[in-house]
Amino acid sequence: MKIRALLLLLLIALGGWQLRGEKASIHKLVSIQTDEIYDKLVSTRRGFHTNPELAGKEIRTQKVIAQYLKDLGMEVDTGIYGHSVIGILKGNKPGRKIAWRADMDALPNGFPDKVDFKSKVNGVQHGCGHDVHMAIGLGIAEIMAKNKEAINGTMYFIFQPEEETFVGAREMIANGLFSKIHPDEIYGLHITPLPVGQIMVKPNEMFAYQKRIRIKLKNDLSKEEGRELAKLIYTSLSRSKPNSKPWELQHIVDSKIGLISPNTIYKDYLIMDENFNIYSEKDEFFLEAYLYETNQSNLQSIIPKIKRLIGETKYKDKLLSVTFIPENPIVQNDIKLTTEAINTLNQIYGPDLMAPDYGQVPYFNDDFTYFQQKVPGVYFFLGGSNFNKGIIAMNHAPDFNVDEECIRVGVRSFSSLMIERLNRK
Ligand SMILES: [Zn+2]
Ligand SMILES: [Zn+2]
Q1: How far apart are CA 75 and CA 52, in angstroms?
Q2: Residues 351 and 306 in one domain
Q3: More confident residue, 12 or 335
Q4: Which domain holds residue 301?
Q5: Ligand 1 centroid vs 183 CA: distance in angstroms?
Q6: How many angstroms separate the alpha carbon of residue 127 from the centre of ligand 1?
Q7: Is 58:161 a contact under the CB 8 Å cutoff?
Q8: pLDDT digits (tens, 9 = 90+) for 335-366
Q9: How far apart are the CA of 148 and the centre of ligand 1, in A?
């Protein structure tokens, strides 16, 4: 009995060693395969960059993606909504079902482009990095297709149009996306100004809550009085760490006060538009402004606070109502999946890949949130800047540019993560 027990222990130990060995070898292979397809992905990305298409007009983009996925041997569906593409990859055995999402549309910008492969379309640019997102999505698809004998379950690739207008995700769902595919989990990413080589994520909110406030008064105020009232509200409501300027987005990459620091200035704030939209319509006078609040629990006290503030002024009898104009929900990362993803990526690629995130980014959001309302999911920030080369991947900014090495980092890391999610016992 003793010997048997010892033998059993030895077998278990060997088994564990073998499992770790197998695990390591598949990810080593993923890494090699990513290097092999890297140049092709870069040229595919440049093709998207040169031929950007606005929300609702992703015609060439859709064709390229559908063909790429078909060439990988996938079942491809382009009929769910608009110019969407879904690729379905079945593994070796039935099992879990995971979705990866990439967005497709470009921006109505005409900034001077810093790269040689400039946009051929006047006033349209990939200034948010969705060209890179698509290249990474296709790269993950290719790596997983190459390794399909080694994976269980089903992988869905969702290429979603019309993200910038916040229409695509909602419409894909409304048009039956989740009766066609049934993912247990969904993942996606966005290029950010973090350094290339880094991935950042946190559970729950990645962005600040966004609200648009509308104050309705009797139409007895002058524009000047409106501006005075707006200033009072702006000064009383705004909140940030002393001597900090969280509305200046360039600090998000700062090692001392940026997202990565426990002392981040992006942790606890309410940022408000200083310039309210002030106008009158018929017998009514309106003040409107956007605000960005990190703490969900503070949202409910904003309207009473504004009412109280106005109640203490000479305009107290003029106030008719204070309301939020409905705004979109924000990205909410599933706590358990986020924690597991961080652990998995740390285990495979070491501690330098994953950067902690202590803050919430103002102004931005992603309609990926609508998928997360239906399926638990995680949304990552992928570093795209290379400060030594003067490349700063600040989305929507006039000098937005991406270090294409982030394609390698994204494809390698997330192919590994998807394989681990599918093959999980
Ligand atoms: Zn954008
Ligand atoms: Zn974007």
Answers
A1: 26
A2: no
A3: 335
A4: 209-325
A5: 25
A6: 7
A7: yes
A8: 999 999 999 999 999 999 999 999 999 999 99
A9: 33
